[in-house]
Amino acid sequence: MKPAAMTAIEQDPRWAAVQARDPAADRQFVYAVKTTGIYCRPSSPTRLPRPENVEFFDSAEQAEAAGYRPSRRAAASMTHVAEQHAALVSAACRQIEIAEELPGLEALAESAGMSASHFHRVFKAVTGLTPKAYARARRARKVRDQLGPGASVTEVIYDAGFNSNSRFYADSAQVLGMKPADYRAGGANNEIRFALGECSLGHFLVAQSGVGVCAILLGDDPDALLRDLQDKFPRARLIGGDSDFEQLVAKVIGFIEAPRLGLDLPLDVRGTAFQERVWQALREIPPGSTASYAEIAERIGSPRAVRAVAQACAANSLAVAIPCHRVIRSDGNLSGYRWGVERKRRLLELEAER
Description:
Layout: H1 8-11, H2 13-19, E1 30-33, E2 38-40, E3 54-57, H3 60-65, E4 69-70, H4 72-98, H5 105-112, H6 116-127, H7 131-146, H8 153-159, H9 165-176, H10 180-184, E5 191-199, E6 202-208, E7 213-219, H11 222-232, E8 237-240, H12 243-257, H13 273-283, E9 291-292, H14 293-299, H15 306-314, E10 327-328, H16 341-353
Parallel strand pairs: 2-4, 5-8, 9-10
Antiparallel strand pairs: 1-2, 1-3, 5-6, 6-7
């Protein structure tokens, strides 16, 4: 009797890995079973399905996007792997923070027992930043924290991990938004252009440093908005915007009234490494959508940091551009908002209308 022809699945080398329950294949793909709606890792000891009911995916994320759910073993395995990755990345972050000179990618990966490319992917998945971006944000934060009145610029530069004055000064505009001596003096000699105006949400203030838009503030009292800006850089030269600046203001007003249009302007975003991870996650929430504080904490790889996520939202000084109004409580309530819950409600309504 002539043997039946092999199916396409049976000819796929991945099927042989599933039959062998090869643990080395677990990082390469998952297989889903059409009749049960679940997916498994190749090494799963579960009973083998019929080949015609099998579908392969490069990752668990792809399988879930196709509507499959993880098996109990797969879910437990992913949780264990996620915990291992979180611990390794946490150790790498500490290594970055205490190092006198910032370690390179190869050194960090070697400490984690991973290849450089795999470590890079894992680090970004957990923190939302590349190792280089995390180190840069950490170093910038250290400079800003220490560069107060009376501090030695040179000492602060080396203490923060810059291995030369020239390297720091080349990056100082991104690190501080101005020259270090000016930052140390509360913004002295630095020009910040600003304008006050009104929109459907009330009064607003737009300010721009040499790097980009550094503040979009909303409120009921224009004087209070200006004081907020002055408190940030008490010795900066605040200059009322000219006719060219009015074009920028017009773009911001249009963005406030129709957030789906987007804001094609450079932003001067400065915060801690954690805040920058949160703010980046907020910018990835599509207009008209919302996410809970807990969901944002999950997305940045810090599921227990729900309160810290809320604090990062409250520290945001770029209303709408960094859309903290799209973050709500897990029960659907709007919760707090730096510029008032009613403004938050109205922004969400504006996005839903378009």
